[in-house]
Amino acid sequence: MSYTNPDPEPERTTGLEQGGGVPPGETPPAESSMSEAGPWEGNNPPKGWAKAPLAVILALVALVAAGFLGYALVLIL
């Protein structure tokens, strides 16, 4: 099994300045300059939780809290 170094040799790599820097014209374009680079996100909800699931969760939390309060009152009395 032979191992090859994936790093290029600086003396054979084009576009490198002295000390290993890269001139501005040699860099690839930034992510924001590429139009439609990512997947289409049309199915994502526009914001936050829907009202119905949030209401169900809050009702369950209220029932559990009422149960604990009732249990505590039974233990005290």
TrEMBL record:
Keywords: Membrane, Transmembrane, Transmembrane helix. It comes from the Bacteria. The chain crosses the membrane at residues 54-76. Residues 1-46 are annotated as: Disordered. It holds the Pfam family DUF6480. This is DUF6480 family protein. It comes from Streptomyces marokkonensis.
